[in-house]
TrEMBL record:
It comes from Dendrobium nobile (Orchid). PANTHER family: FAD SYNTHASE (PTHR23293:SF9), FAD SYNTHETASE-RELATED FMN ADENYLYLTRANSFERASE (PTHR23293). One of its GO terms (biological process) is FAD biosynthetic process. This is FAD synthase. It is an enzyme of class 2 (transferase). Pfam families: MoCF_biosynth (PF00994), PAPS_reduct (PF01507). The keyword Acetylation does not apply. It catalyses: FMN + ATP + H(+) = FAD + diphosphate. One of its GO terms (molecular function) is ATP binding.
Length: 511
C-alpha cells in the first residue's frame, strides 16, 4: 500500500511515530465499530486530506491483520468509508472541487450536507446509524481543547464518538506527511493559504508574502514554507470573544478592568516546594521579586508557599488568577515526580497537558540524547493557554499560561537574569510604571504614644502605605512610608514628626 510504503521508506523517525500512533487509533476504531456505522468528516482541507490517507492506510493494515485479502488486492486498497461534507455557499470553489474530485478518485461514499454542523449531524444520525466520526482536529485548533483521540460529542450535540487520529500532529507533521507521501492537496495551499475557513474570513498568510515589484500582483510561498506552525491561522480573521468585548485588552495582553486603576497593577507570588515547608530550604526568590516588582511600580498583594501537590497549586491559582494582573510561580518545574507545577496550572485553567513541539525542540537542544522515549515529558505544557517568551540570553524560553508567569529560577542570580530578559521583551507582560519609593523613620516612642496619630495619618494619606515593624522587641519602632509621590511621603512624615518633640524620629537610610 503506497502510503504505508512511503512512510516506512522515509528517514523521518518523528513522522513514522506519528503515523504509527494515528493508524493504531484508526485500526482500533475499525475494530470497535461496524464499518457502515463510522463516517469521515471531510472538507478538502489539509488536515482532513492527511486523515483521508491515514484512513486508507489504517483500513489496509486492519484488513491485513484480519487476513481478509481473499486474493483481491483491489478490495483492500480502497476504503469506501461513508464521508460527510458540510457544504456552504461561502466555501472556496477550489475547496469544493477538490473535495468532490478526491471523493470520486478514492471511492468515498460522499454525503453532502447543506445544514449547520449540529442540525446536519442530528439529521444524519436520524437517517443512518452513526456511532463514530473521524475528524482532522489537531491540538492548537480552537475546538481541540479538552479533546482526546476518542472524545464523545459534547453535551447538547447528537451522541457519537469523535475520533481524532491526528490530534497530536503539528503543522509541520501534516506537511511532512503530505510531501513524503506525495498526495494531492487543494491548490489554495500553494498560493499561501495555511488554514482554510470561508471566503469571507480567509486570506493568504501574510507571513508567506513574497515582496513584489511595484505593479506586480502579490505572490505567496506555498503553505509548507511556513516555519512557525503556531501562525497557521494568521490568515484567518479573528472572531472577537463576545464575553470580553467591553474589557480593553492592553498591548501586553493584560486586561484593564478598572478605568480608575489604569496606573496600578498587582501581582502575587507562589513558591512551590516541600523543602521550603520543611524548613530545609530558605526561600529568597519571593522577597527579591517583591523588590523588583515594587521598583517598576507594581504592588504585590500576596505571597504564598505551597507543597508539591497539584490540587494545592491549582486551588491557590484559582484564588489568585482573577484577583491579580499577574501571578509569578516558581519551583517544581521539570521531569521529576515532584515537578507538578505545570499540572497544577493546567488544572486551575481546566485544560490538559499536551506536547508542545516548539518547547520540545529547545529541550532537545540542551539535553541532547539524555531524554528517553519518543515523548519528552518535560515538553508537556498546558494546552491552548501557553505562550513561550523568547529571549536571546535564555537557553529555554519563559513559559506564560494566561496570566501565570512560570519562572525556572532556582536562586536569586538566576532570577536576576530571567527578570532582566522579561523586562526587555517587546511582548513583556510587565508594564513599567513609576516605582514605589519609601522613607523610613525610627523612634524610641512607645507604640501607645503614637498609635492615634498614625491612625489619623493613614486616613489623611490613603495614597501612602504607612507600616510599622521592629527588628527587636526592645529596639526602636520603624515606620515605613511607601508610595509613588515623593512630596506626599515627605508631607506625611513631616506631619508625624511635628506632633512630637524635636529629635523623636530619625530617618533611616533606605536599602
Ligand atoms: C463531524 C463534526 C462533529 C462535531 N462535533 C462537535 C462537538 O461534539 N462539540 C462541539 O462543540 N463542536 C463540534 N463540532 C464543531 C467543531 O468543534 C468546530 O466548530 C468546527 O470544526 C468548525 O471549526 P471552525 O469554527 O474553526 O471553522 C463538530 C464538527 C463536525 C464537523
Ligand atoms: N465543512 C466541513 N465538512 C466536513 N468536515 C469538516 C468541515 N469543516 C471542518 N470539518 C472537520 O473538522 C476538521 C478540522 O477542521 P480544520 O478547518 O481545522 O482543518 P482542515 O480544514 O482539514 O485544514 P485547515 O486547517 O487547513 O483548514 C477537518 O479536518 C474535518 O474533519
Ligand atoms: Mg479548514
Amino acid at each position: 500500500m503506497e502510503i504505508d510504503r512511503a512512510i516506512r521508506d522515509c528517514s523521518d523517525r518523528r513522522l513514522q511515530t506519528k503515523y504509527q500512533n494515528a493508524t493504531y487509533v484508526i485500526q482500533r476504531a475499525f475494530s470497535l465499530y461496524d464499518f457502515q456505522q463510522v463516517a469521515f468528516s471531510f472538507n478538502g482541507g489539509k488536515d482532513s486530506t492527511v486523515l483521508l490517507h491515514l484512513l486508507r492506510a489504517g483500513y489496509f493494515l486492519y484488513k491485513e491483520e484480519m487476513g481478509s485479502f481473499n486474493g483481491n488486492m483491489d478490495s483492500v486498497l480502497k476504503c469506501p468509508i461513508r464521508t460527510i461534507y458540510f457544504e456552504t455557499s461561502s466555501a472556496f470553489p477550489e475547496i469544493n472541487s477538490f473535495t468532490y474530485e478526491t471523493a470520486a478518485s478514492y471511492d468515498l461514499q460522499l454525503d453532502i450536507i447543506r445544514l449547520d454542523f449540529k442540525s446536519g449531524l442530528e439529521t444524519l444520525l436520524k437517517e443512518k446509524t452513526t456511532k463514530a466520526i473521524f475528524l482532522g482536529t489537531r491540538i492548537g485548533d480552537p475546538n481541540a481543547i479538552g479533546q482526546e483521540q476518542f472524545s464523545p460529542s459534547s453535551t447538547g450535540w447528537p451522541p457519537f464518538m469523535r475520533v481524532n487520529p491526528i490530534l497530536d500532529w503539528s503543522y509541520r507533521d501534516v506537511w511532512a506527511f503530505i510531501l513524503t507521501c506525495k498526495v494531492p492537496y487543494c491548490s489554495l495551499y500553494d498560493r499561501g493559504y495555511t488554514s482554510i475557513g470561508s471566503i469571507y474570513d480567509t486570506e493568504p498568510n501574510a507571513l508567506l508574502c513574497i515582496p513584489h515589484q511595484s505593479g506586480d500582483k502579490e505572490n505567496f510561498k506555498p503553505a509548507y514554507c511556513l516555519s512557525d506552525g503556531r501562525l497557521e491561522r494568521a490568515g484567518r480573521a479573528k472572531k472577537l470573544a463576545s464575553k470580553n468585548e467591553n474589557i480593553p485588552i492592553m498591548s501586553n495582553g493584560l486586561k484593564n478592568t478598572n478605568p480608575h486603576q489604569s496606573c496600578s497593577f498587582s501581582a502575587s507570588i507562589i513558591a512551590v516546594g516541600d523543602e521550603i515547608l520543611f524548613g530545609s530550604v530558605e526561600e529568597k526568590i519571593g522577597a527579591t521579586l517583591c523588590k523588583k516588582l515594587n521598583a517598576i511600580g507594581w504592588r504585590v498583594s500576596h505571597i504564598t508557599v505551597v507543597g508539591n501537590d497539584i490540587d494545592l497549586i491549582a486551588d491557590e491559582l484559582e484564588h489568585r488568577k482573577c484577583k491579580d494582573d499577574l501571578i509569578f510561580l516558581f519551583g517544581a518545574l521539570g521531569p521529576l515526580h515532584s515537578d507538578v507545577s505545570l499540572a497544577g496550572v493546567a488544572k486551575a485553567f481546566g485544560v490538559r497537558l499536551a506536547p508542545d513541539e516548539e518547547f520540545e525542540e529547545y529541550l532537545r537542544h540542551i539535553m541532547g540524547n539524555h531524554s528517553t522515549g519518543n515523548r519528552n515529558e518535560m515538553a508537556l505544557l498546558p494546552e491552548g493557554i501557553t505562550e513561550l517568551l523568547h529571549h536571546d540570553k535564555l537557553v529555554v524560553p519563559l513559559i506564560k499560561c494566561c496570566n501565570v508567569m512560570l519562572l525556572s529560577a532556582t536562586n536569586t542570580d538566576e532570577l536576576e537574569q530571567q527578570w532582566d530578559c522579561l523586562l526587555q521583551l517587546c511582548s513583556s507582560p510587565l508594564v513599567q510604571m513609576g516605582p514605589f519609593i519609601s522613607k523610613q523613620l525610627s523612634t524610641k516612642l512607645y507604640d501607645v504614644e503614637i498609635a492615634a496619630v498614625l491612625s489619623k495619618l493613614c486616613l489623611d494619606f490613603p495614597d501612602i502605605h504607612i507600616g510599622c515593624h521592629r527588628q527587636s522587641r526592645a529596639g526602636p519602632l520603624i515606620i515605613n512610608f511607601v508610595g509613588k509621590d515623593h512630596e506626599r511621603i515627605e508631607l506625611a512624615s513631616h506631619i508625624l514628626s511635628q506632633k512630637f518633640d524635636f529629635g523623636a524620629f530619625s530617618e533611616l537610610s533606605s536599602g
